[in-house]
């Protein structure tokens, strides 16, 4: 079995570089490992594409959701299975797949899954004219928070998202949104919209709490027009998934989705910028093979 291990040495504040020796040791016990150090996003994307083009059985990546997103672009609808070893800030895809948060524990789990042949297929979202996403595509208030958090260098971890939320609340402006799904069209004034293949974004926030990456559908959470004080009341319930019980929150489920409206919102998917609305997307069942049960 051939495995290409792509490592971003800077991920997690240098965490991946500190444990690389142990990671390689776990994987070499079960497969032929080629290790590639990728210093930036372009290097990671190129290494991932090359691994798939060369017919690697497994592409293992060490890093955060940005690295995972690049790996998904390469592995989608291919014969190469993806193995995630989290070492970033959010790690939402790893969380959605049940991967241990500790990179060494994750490497052990990956090695054991390779030893026993445990693999599964999950769905992916596909943006029309664009790329794939494995977790959540969002627009509106939450995408502004995402953009701000990406620009920040302090603090690390979940506190970065929390601070970005506070700062973006000051400029809150609900806008017109049009949501088209298989079931029909809904037009409303909205604060944010999230389209989930898995449940979480922003480092573990279950914005689409019932999303299942193996049901062939995308889950939508739309927060309608709310005042700043009301959104402040809703935000804490995002941590538990109970925000969907609020009367201003609409939930939908669909195989195909189109988001539009005169809002100028930029969509983010897997924490990465995509394009401004209008934007269409669909769920592609079983588009990605991942290592693990």
Automatic annotation (TrEMBL):
One of its GO terms (cellular component) is plasma membrane. It comes from the Bacteria. The keyword Transferase applies. GO terms for molecular function: ATP binding; ATP-dependent diacylglycerol kinase activity; metal ion binding. Its cofactor is Mg(2+). Keywords: ATP-binding, Kinase, Lipid biosynthesis, Lipid metabolism, Magnesium, Metal-binding, Nucleotide-binding, Phospholipid biosynthesis, Phospholipid metabolism, Transferase. Pfam families: DAGK_cat (PF00781), YegS_C (PF19279). Belongs to the diacylglycerol/lipid kinase family. This is YegS/Rv2252/BmrU family lipid kinase. Residues 1-131 form the DAGKc domain. One of its GO terms (biological process) is phospholipid biosynthetic process.
């Amino acid at each position: 079995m051939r495995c290409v291990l792509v490592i971003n040495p800077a991920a997690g504040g240098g965490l991946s570089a500190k444990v690389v020796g142990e990671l390689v040791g776990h994987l070499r016990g079960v497969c032929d490992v080629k290790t590639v150090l990728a210093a930036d996003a372009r290097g990671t994307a190129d290494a991932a594409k090359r691994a798939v083009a060369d017919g690697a059985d497994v592409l293992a990546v060490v890093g955060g959701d940005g690295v995972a997103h690049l790996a998904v672009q390469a592995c989608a609808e291919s014969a190469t299975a993806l193995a995630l070893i989290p070492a970033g800030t959010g790690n939402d895809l790893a969380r959605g797949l049940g991967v241990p948060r500790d990179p060494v524990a994750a490497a052990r789990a990956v090695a054991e899954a390779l030893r026993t042949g445990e693999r599964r297929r999950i769905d992916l979202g596909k943006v029309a004219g664009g790329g794939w996403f494995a977790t959540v595509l969002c627009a509106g208030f939450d995408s502004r928070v995402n953009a701000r958090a990406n620009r920040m260098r302090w603090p690390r971890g979940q506190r970065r998202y929390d601070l970005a939320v506070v700062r973006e609340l000051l400029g809150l402006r609900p806008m017109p949104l049009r949501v088209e799904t298989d079931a029909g069209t809904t037009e409303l004034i909205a604060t944010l919209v999230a389209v989930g293949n898995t449940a979480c974004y922003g480092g573990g926030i279950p914005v689409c709490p019932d999303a299942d990456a193996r049901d062939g559908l995308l889950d939508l959470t739309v927060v309608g027009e709310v005042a700043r004080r009301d959104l402040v009341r809703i935000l804490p319930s995002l941590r538990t998934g109970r925000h969907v019980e609020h009367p201003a929150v609409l939930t939908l489920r669909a195989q195909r989705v189109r988001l539009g409206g005169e809002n100028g919102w930029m969509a983010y998917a897997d924490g990465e910028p995509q394009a401004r609305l209008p934007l269409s997307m669909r769920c592609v069942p079983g588009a990605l093979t991942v290592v693990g049960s």
